Amino acid sequence: MEDLACWAYFSKSKNISNMKPIYHLLFTICSVLFLTSCPDKDPNCDYSLKIINGSDTPIVFWFFINSSQACELPDSLPIGLRPGNIESWTVTANSQKEFLCTPSGDIDVFENNCLFLFSSIVVQGSSWEVIQNENLYLYRMNVGVEDLEAMDWTVEYP
């Protein structure tokens, strides 16, 4: 109650106009502190796969989740690697990108997976039949949850 009485006193006083800049300053400082403490990651994302491209050319990432078959290229071009979709799966030269945001409750999805990295030049300039027949991938790996955890959910190329 004393706080309210104090506020009522100051709000009626002539010095209230001198106090407004202080409130604005305090509000600004609190806002900046609050916003800088916000996390950069999606709060629903406990696991994500980070691809680090240390090469001088862009690479394309593709991942078959919970694959029941051997770690082989599919018979047809995956939808994500078709023109218009490929940009979201591309990691530019000397950069990194995160994929597959997953809540911890869904981690069992990653039990048996197949990971591929391709040259973006090859994916954009070759037919899928040629890529498949000549195995034109840069990197292939069969991974499970334990493998991903051992790699700290990070794949580095080269």
What's the layout of helices and strands?
Blueprint: H1 2-12, H2 16-36, E1 47-53, E2 59-64, E3 90-91, E4 95-102, E5 113-119, H3 120-125, H4 128-133, E6 139-143, H5 145-150, E7 154-157
Parallel strand pairs: 1-7
Antiparallel strand pairs: 1-4, 2-3, 2-5, 5-6
Search tags:
158 residues; alpha+beta; Mutm (Fpg) Protein, Chain: A, domain 2; 2 domains; four-stranded antiparallel beta sheet; three-stranded mixed beta sheet; 5 helices; 25% strand; globular; disordered N terminus
CATH architecture of the largest domain: Sandwich
Low-confidence stretches: 1-11, 24-39
Provide the domain count: 2
Query: What's the arrangement of strands in the largest beta sheet?
Result: 3-2-5-6
Query: What is the terminal-to-terminal distance?
Result: 67 Å
Largest sheet data: 4 strands, antiparallel
CATH class of the largest domain: Mainly Beta
Helix content: 25-40%
- Our Rg estimate from Cα atoms comes to 26 Å
Strand pairing plus helix content: what structural class? alpha+beta
User: Which shape, going by the Cα principal axes?
Assistant: globular
Order of helices and strands: HHEEEEEHHEHE
- Kindly estimate the percentage of residues that lie in beta strands according to DSSP: 15-25%
| CATH topology (level 3) name of the largest domain | Mutm (Fpg) Protein, Chain: A, domain 2
Total strand count, please? 7
Helical segment count: 5
Mean pLDDT: 78
